[in-house]
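Standup notes, structure subgroup. Blocker cleared on the EPZ input:
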Amino acid sequence: MEKFIVHGGSQLEGSVNISGSKNASLPILAATLLTREQCVIRRVPDVSDTNYMLQILQNLGAEVERASGTVVIRCEKLRSHEAPYDLVRKMRASVCVMGPLLARHNRASVSLPGGCVIGDRPIDLHLRGLEGLGAEATVEGGNVHLEARYGLTGKVIDMSGKHGATVLGTDNVMMAAVLAKGTTVITGAACEPEVVDLADFLIAMGAKITGAGTPRIEIEGVSELGGVEHTVIPDRIEAGTFMVAGALAAKDSITLRRVNPEHLTSITEVLRRCGCKVEVSKTTVTVSRAANPVGANITTEPYPGFPTDMQAQMCSLFAVTPGTSVVRDTIFPQRFMHASEMKRMGADITVDDGTAIIHGVEQLSAAPVMASDLRASAALVLSALTAKGNTEISRVYHIDRGYEHIDDKLINLGAEIERLPA
Ligand code: EPZ
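Run returned:
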């Protein structure tokens, strides 16, 4: 296990290249199971979650080669239709092999992922959708077994739940439906850019999909899909995290390269409301620190609303922004593990019922803190950048799950961070 020592007070300048999206890569990697032919996927970030997904695919029979961001996968023959607990427990997104396995094999057996530190993470909507296409689901020994004895058949499938649409649930049903008989209409579909990237990947493979990026996706089943080359979209959450780093600690400004600013609209809008200057070009975003920073009230929402995956990082910004800010997470109301760690650094945060009320203080002070999940860990790194003293952040494997070399990227911008064995 490794830890970071972040020496607070450095000022950031220069530019950073944003990696390919982790959350787009994961379902796209799973979708390679839908064809016997070779797929080449570029800009897959080198993070532990994509490594776990590749291990799962290899376990299922895929041949995988990986070199500097490009992954070549060929799954000529499925060796198994089971994703076992020791791999699934490491990464919840492994549930997105259910759809492709069912489509290709008419069977899937995936260990139930269980809850996680950001709260209850049910998969009832995934199962409801796959059952709607003709699969039968049974749960036994902690595994969910899905079988479509007569194959999958297109239907109208409603994917909306009480917290809105489900991203990976939409992905699973879309991946199952591409090889189903007839037409599937997904209503209440998630509109996230990662869903659109998966749809683009599937379309390039030969799938017939329209409406991705809207709440109504229509899929006409085809009998076969082929190999494809694809470049994953930029990671909008990594980008958002660096935007907050700029808002907190830029000497003047920092520039993010290789981004899609359209995907960053809600984050840009909030940072501007907080007084930051955010300049946008076709593939770059430049963020300057606010001359007169002010707090804000934000509520997480499905895309294009403010992302839950950026909520913790905004808490870091608000912790040192004058005035009172309110952060409400409607998607994962229990996702506030970072708050208690930030309090150890002197933040004034009260969390109740999915809402954090933050009174900005002048400066945080270093303390030993513990990373608890991916975005909470990123938030602690951000807080440590401006804290007084040297912050020790343990369990940084959480951050390595989803950020490609975050320490090196911040060091290149001028931060002082050491990665040490714990
Ligand atoms: C994706 O998870 C992302 N993960 C998450 O990012 C992200 O926080 C989340 O979408 C919301 O944007 C990946 O893409 C790999 P959901 P997903 O199903 O699809 C409820 C990160 O930090 N729900 O859209 O699993 C659920 O409890 C990660 O990178 C059900 O009730 O999330 C939540 O309240 C963490 N039943 C809401 O829907 C279900 O069957 C949205 O969750 C499924 C979900």
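Discussed briefly. The longest strand covers residues 250-257.
Next: hand off to the docking folks.
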